[in-house]
Every structure is written in C-alpha cells, then in structure tokens.
Amino acid sequence: MLFFMVFELQYEAIHSYTPVHYMVGDEDGWDPVISMQGWAQGKHFHAGDVLEFKYDDAFDVSIVDKAGYDDCFVSDTSIQFSDGDDNITLAFGANYFISSLPTNICAGGMKMAINATAPPPSV
Asked: Where in this chain does the record put each Phytocyanin domain (predicted)?
C-alpha cells in the first residue's frame, strides 16, 4: 500500500507542472540586437517549458547538437525552423539553438544554449 501511495505522489509531482512559455529575446525577439545568451541568464528553464522564437525572414532558428552550437553549423540531424514564429518545447538537459541565416550571424552571437532541468515538484 505504501508503495502505491509513493508512486502516486511521484506521478502527481511530475505531471502537475505547468510549463512556462518564454518569448525568446522578449520584445526584441530572436534578433542579433541583443545577446541571446544574456537573455537566458538568470532564468530557470525546465523540461517541457516552451520557447517562442519570433524573427523576420532574414533569420531562422535551428536546434543543433553541441558541436553545431560550438562551430555554428547545421547538420543532417539538426531541426530547422523558418516560419518566423516557432514554439519549441525544451527537452531535459542541454538544448542548443543557432541561427544559420545569414551566414556568420551565429558566430556573431545569434545562438543560445539552455540547460533544462527536471520540472519542480508540486507544492
């Protein structure tokens, strides 16, 4: 009986979290006018939270791996978005985002690394 009570409490803690919706870059959006990594600093991201990327057609956003983030390249395993208003749900752990358009914009700072932790337990 105790096992089932503990299991139920753990299940509720995991499934009762309401994801947070973040507008990347706030009113500036996904744009090189601000530091994307600076925008993310101080925020506590959790798996399941949603990042909304708003940008004009001069840019895009790609989910890449660590190597793609470090070297600013999109590989066959990357996921690219170009709609200008994309909602991306954070996975648990490291999440890497870059803009591959225009060329060299990523190297200029239009990239962001976010570590999403487990959702907090319900209170």
From this structure: 20-118
H helices of 1-123, in order, are 2-15, 36-40, 66-71
pTM as predicted: 0.84
**Close Cβ partners of 111 (under 8 Å, ≥ 6 residues apart):** 36, 37, 69, 72, 96, 97, 98, 99
Residue 30 structure tokens = 């996904």
Burial class for 60, CB neighbours closer than 10 Å (0-12, 13-18, 19+): buried
> The tokens 């089932």 sit on which residue?
4
